[in-house]
Amino acid sequence: MLVPPDMLAAQSKMVYQLNKYYTEKVQARKLQISKTIQEVCRVVQDVLKEVEVQEPRFISSLTDYNGRFDGLEVISPVEFEVVIYLNQMGVLNFVDDGTLPGCAVLKLSDGRKRSMSLWVEFITASGYLSARKMRSRFQTLVAQACDKCSYRDSVKMIADTTEVKLRIRERYIVQITPAFKCAGLWPRSASHWPLPQIPWPHPNHVVEVKTEGFDLLSKECIALQGKQSAMEGDAWALSFLEAENRLLQGGCRRRCLSVLKTLRDRHLDLPGNPVASYHMKTLLLYECEKHPREGEWDEACIADRINGIFLQLISCLQCKRCPHYFLPNLDLFKGKSPSALENASKQVWRLTREMLTNSRCFEKL
Predict the structure, then answer these.
(1) Is residue 314 within 8 Å of 356, Cβ to Cβ?
(2) Which secondary-structure segment (H or E) carries 342?
(3) Rounded to two decimals, what is the model's pTM?
(4) Where is the Mab-21-like nucleotidyltransferase domain (predicted)?
(5) Which residues, given as ranges, of the chain have pLDDT below 50?
């Protein structure tokens, strides 16, 4: 296909602009965050070491692999989540009947096996392993550990939340979340994935992702905000962090995500936090379905993919709904204020218009 020379010139100008932006802004963000991670994880490891002394069942799985920490997620440059993986789900069955979007429960496979569970005192009378009871115990242990650890002058527990959250050096917030890893399992609520009519991802890739499985986190579930049900405290939140990361390998997908996160931090860090990095990641996965060919993810196409994702984001903000990639019944905007979403849609539109009409926009962004 013959492409007009001026179109090629505009495209190569945009590639140059984006590469410059990546080198100057995105890499700087990454470097700063990796320094922060080192600082934050030193403190969290020390706190978790104290927790383990008091209660050996809560073994820290936060390990440094050449600067990468297993179970650590960057929420923003000053906010992080550390997942600690617990042992022995053994005598418990995973029950995912769709009644709680984004959540599942763990139930004793046989009432007679109650005493065989490592977590016996957190199992309810009806045989469910209560996520909230476990988190409450963990919260008490972490609070005690903060007072005893060697960083006690610079780490504080954040009160008025059922989550386990630390404030470190008055600058950073870290949520520590107990979890079970469910490798080789795939939840029924995500069984529709992948959609048969969409050629992405490749079937071999799908097998890898489903073998990776998912995690069950002890944290407040988005879908249950404002609801009071007996099941709520027992429910575990489904997380597909590893599966999502595996899907974003190949082409410039991860590079694209880094640019999106940088744009979000610089221009969309708004009151009420309507647009988080996770929304960007979710819409990037939907964009992968819309553009299934690998050639659509080389560096010459990144600007088009970013524009596509921002247009999706405007649509979601205006409809006030952002479906989770694997669990479309789960709305990631649940609990966000309508005015914050409205304000964000105007801001995203201003940003998108700049990117669509100005080939030198990345000099200013």
Answers:
(1) no
(2) helix 338-357
(3) 0.94
(4) 69-250
(5) 1-3
